TrEMBL record:
It comes from the Bacteria. Belongs to the ABC transporter superfamily. SMART domains: AAA. GO terms for molecular function: ATP binding; ATP hydrolysis activity. The keyword Repeat does not apply. This is ABC-2 type transport system ATP-binding protein. The keyword Zinc does not apply. The lineage of its organism: Bacteria, Bacillati, Actinomycetota, Actinomycetes, Streptosporangiales. Signal peptide: none annotated.
Length: 254
């Protein structure tokens, strides 16, 4: 079920993301406002909200890329900074464009792998998994957006982590790529991993996610299964529109 040495299924089944009263203020703007929820293993959890709702900020706080103003974000019960080999616990794709264009895909992944004691065999394995083996020696700067998304996903998978977060991974992908991501998310959850996925594509989210967390203006609006929402509303898109009505605003101080 789980391929990488040193990781058993039990460990993966324990993997969770927890936000506890998480708050992040940038100057006068409240990006995340007293936000609490838990992302459980074995499901794809869709993370929804209007532009500026605080989804990316929440993910950045989980990854220790930014410090919370108050509250905590935990991976497997611990703050990111206290994880000994973080890539083995949590993998993430936040910004596919944030890569060194001069390196080859292989070297990019190898550099990341080394920082976490991961060997070159695993680099070859994830390149194969995301369909980039044939272009592994090409410079990342020559990659299309879809190829960069795949490379970012390969980086997230490197440590075979139990927790995975993907911020809008289908942006700019062709239909083949969109379906590939959908299948990959489903497979990762089926393996018992915890998968948090943000996207603005409601039709795609309805096909991919089991559970949904909706936020607006940094606050929790709803937590439900896709089944519960589509039983109550004509579609997930209708549910989203109804739930977020009144939460759409961009960058205003609050
Ligand atoms: N480094 C920063 N400095 C100042 N404000 C920030 C910073 N990062 C995010 N914000 C603000 O925090 C709020 C939440 O932004 P965030 O990117 O988390 O939203 P989002 O839900 O991911 O939006 P989108 O769907 O557009 O990607 C926005 O008002 C944004 O302008």
């Amino acid at each position: 079920m789980v391929r990488c040495a040193g990781r058993g299924p039990r460990r993966i089944l324990d993997a969770v993301i927890e936000l506890r009263r998480l708050t992040k203020r940038y100057g006068g703007a409240l990006a995340v406002d007293d936000l609490s929820f838990t992302v459980e293993p074995g499901h794809v959890t869709g993370f929804l909200g209007p532009n500026g709702a605080g989804k990316s900020t929440s993910m950045r706080l989980v990854l220790g890329l930014d410090a919370p103003t108050s509250g905590v974000a935990l991976v497997n019960g611990r703050r990111y900074a206290s994880l000994r080999r973080p890539m083995r616990e949590v993998g993430a794709l936040l910004d596919a464009g944030a890569v060194h264009g001069g390196r080859s895909a292989y070297n990019h992944l190898l550099c990341l792998a080394r920082t976490n004691g991961i060997g070159p065999l695993r680099v070859a394995e994830v390149l194969e998994q995301v369909g980039l083996s044939g272009v592994a020696r090409k410079r990342v700067g020559t990659f299309s957006l879809g190829m960069k998304q795949r490379l970012g996903i390969a980086a997230a998978l490197l440590g075979d982590p139990g927790v995975l977060m993907f911020d809008e991974p289908v942006n700019g992908l062709d239909p083949d790529g969109v379906r590939w991501i959908r299948d990959l998310m489903r497979t990762l959850a089926h393996e018992g991993r915890t998968v948090l996925l943000s996207s603005h594509l409601m039709s795609e989210m309805a096909l991919t996610a089991d559970r949904i967390v909706v936020i607006g203006r940094g606050r929790l609006i709803a937590e439900a299964t896709v089944q519960e929402l589509t039983a109550r509303y004509p579609s997930l898109e209708d549910a989203y529109m109804a739930l977020t009505a009144g939460s759409v605003q961009y960058g205003a101080s609050r």
